[in-house]
Design brief:
The structure is a single chain. By secondary structure, this protein is of the alpha/beta class. Helices cover about 40% and strands about 20% of the residues. It contains ten helices and 13 strands. Strand 8 and strand 9 form a beta hairpin.
Length: about 300
């Protein structure tokens, strides 16, 4: 198999998980003095691509010390159990709220089945493998982990999910952000500049918490962010300001959407999609809309559910 990985500065690499399609989900890993830390696993089918990337770099599975998952949504952590079975020395680092779901992923798969249908969920994720409890580390906020002396710090960043954390690499001055800093697909790059979209998906979206998390990350003055969807983003300060504004835009549009239940969710979908299409003026909208359709549907669901919970 020919591995497709992207080398970034400071011995950081991205592997395209080929989750649903190329350019949707990135697995990142850091190499320091021959030791490896992985951030995100994507789904089971991504594991061979990651192992081949290690091989191409003359590294073995035994070199992996840590697997970090920013949160336990299956596009980020669905392959965690399969990875751990192949990485004998690794510990899985996860938010305390998410740890039990890695040890017993029954509820995770049930939740994915409720969203996608069981058949589609199995096609997307395969059989979700439990992680042995003794190999799971429940990270504390601001806790450091040493990768051969290279400090990697976990920072709690709720907003997309209550159990979300980011990984701050102070040596490289970069942050691995999961979904906390939005999504930025390659198809949305205009003049070499990414276009970030908030990830407001169900069921724990909280706009104020999301904005606070983004501001926490911006306060670190990072040189770059590494997004699961999809890889490196530079010009962080400007991108952060624009992302914060889009969260406010999404909330405003959701609050103005008429109706209740499914009708309101559909109205939100139309409103946020139309809003983004107005901003994405330099791209082929007919090409972009299908790419964003699933995200806009999930974002609309998350916004509608947040409104229902707020209204109570």
């Amino acid at each position: 198999m020919q591995a497709k990985f992207i080398p970034w500065p400071h011995n950081t690499y991205a592997v395209d998980a080929i989750y649903v399609r190329p350019g949707l989900a990135a697995i990142h890993f850091i190499v320091e003095k021959g030791r490896v830390a992985v951030i995100e696993t994507a789904h089971n089918a991504a594991l061979p691509r990651f192992l081949e990337a290690l091989k191409e770099l003359n590294l073995t599975p035994e070199a992996v010390d840590y697997v970090f998952v920013t949160h336990v949504h299956l596009d980020h952590a669905g392959g965690a159990g399969a990875y751990m079975a192949e990485l004998p020395n690794a510990k899985l680092v996860v938010h305390p709220r998410g740890a039990r779901h890695m040890i017993d992923p029954t509820q995770l798969f049930a939740g994915a089945s409720a969203v996608y249908g069981e058949e589609t969920a199995r096609k997307l994720y395969g059989e979700i493998v439990p992680v042995p409890a003794e190999r799971v580390i429940e990270a504390a906020d601001e806790e450091f982990f040493s990768l051969a002396g290279r400090p990697l710090q976990c920072l709690f960043t709720p907003g997309h999910a209550k159990h979300h954390l980011c990984v701050w690499d102070s040596q490289a001055r970069v942050c691995f952000t999961g979904d906390a800093f939005g999504i930025a697909y390659p198809e949305l790059i205009v003049d070499k500049k990414p276009f970030l979209i908030p990830a407001t998906t169900p069921s724990q979206f909280d706009p104020e918490a999301m904005k606070a998390s983004i501001k926490r990350l911006l306060a670190l003055k990072p040189e770059a962010m590494y997004l699961m969807h999809f890889s490196r983003v530079d010009d962080v300060e400007r991108q952060g300001r624009e992302l914060l504004a889009r969260i406010d835009d999404f909330v405003r549009l959701a609050e103005a959407a008429p109706g209740t239940g499914t009708a309101r969710k559909e109205a939100i979908h139309v409103a946020i999609e139309s809003h983004l299409m107005e901003e994405i003026v330099a791209k082929n909208r007919d090409k972009i809309k299908p790419i964003l359709n699933v995200d806009m549907e999930l974002n609309a669901q998350g916004l509608a559910l947040w409104l229902e919970q707020r209204e109570g």
